[in-house]
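just leaving the lab so this will be short. what follows is a protein written twice so to speak, once as letters and once as structure tokens for the fold. can you read through it and tell me how you think this chain folds. anything you notice is useful, everything is just below:
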Amino acid sequence: MTILNTEELLAAEAWEKRNTPSADFLGKAVEASKLFNEGLSGRNPFKKAMLAEALTTSDFNIYLGKAFDVEMLAKYEDLNPEWPKIAKPTTVKNFKPKTYKELFGGRGPLDKVAEGEEYKERKKSDAEYELKAAKFGNIFKLTFELIKNDEIGELRSLPSDLAQGAIETEDKAAFEAFVSSSGPNTQFFKAANGNAVDNKPFTRENVQAAYVAISKRKDKNGNPVRIAGQKLNIIVPAALLFEAEQIVNAPTIPDPAGGSGTIPNPLAGKFNTVVSDYLTVVNTSTKADATWYILPAPTAARPALVVAKMLGEEQPDIRVKADTGNRVGGGSIAPEEGSFGDDTITYRGRHIIGAGTLDPLATYASTGE
């Protein structure tokens, strides 16, 4: 893995102005990344020795950490999480709960008013949905012994590992909002929400029945859900991939009247098919491969799922720890010389993310028993 070349680091000018005190810092990060790449390549024993020495002297790891951070952000931007297919993105200002309120009482049909009659009062009520972000992270230690033994290859994958870890954290948060280890999350899929967990197998007839059932639901004003003309998401594990293609994506189906003829598939065009690897990561029950879900698309007027990032902290972050103490005779000691407690050089990765459920009106879940 190449950390970054000079051009790529210099292209990160906006990142530099936001995160470092001077342009000189960026130049030193460029040099640190070049020495790291050359030293790990093994082609030049002199560069390898220089790298081993740099890791134990001066402030090399601070500059290398910046190169890691830029590389990690680039890889993070290139990865494709699953959650944007099913959840509405939003932001929060801090770690305090963010409350969504849906007002009811004003959307229903207006009352008829006879000549000379007073208007009837209609009071507002509301439903609240709460969303809260949380902090996730890990530390990565490079020991004094590893540096001295030239066994520093484990640093090579740090940017990639952190980028992938941040994506996995986002997907895990999103799916845990509506999926539990035992199946559909019964805090969301419940009778009180009108979407209690069903146990119908994943067949064309059952998907059609679920669609009809959703289309007949009414909100608290008595208004219809109005799903005609907009696609719902049908979310299935990889085990149901081919069934999903046949059920909702095939343009025609066998004529139910019999014979060898076909008719247009009534479900075609009504669903986006989302085949998720993460469903069975969260749901570890014996029914995980048969469980299927219907949610509104993230762009729907009444989304069911939301994922939040914190303002100013939308991307993951890498830092290096400075806890070396001071010389007995005076003077500070750079982080690269090892921590006061155990001689390690410690990098830390952090990501802030939150997810929650909103409107249950156009949702469905079945364990497929």
Q: What stands out?
A: Residues 23-41 form the longest helix (19 residues).
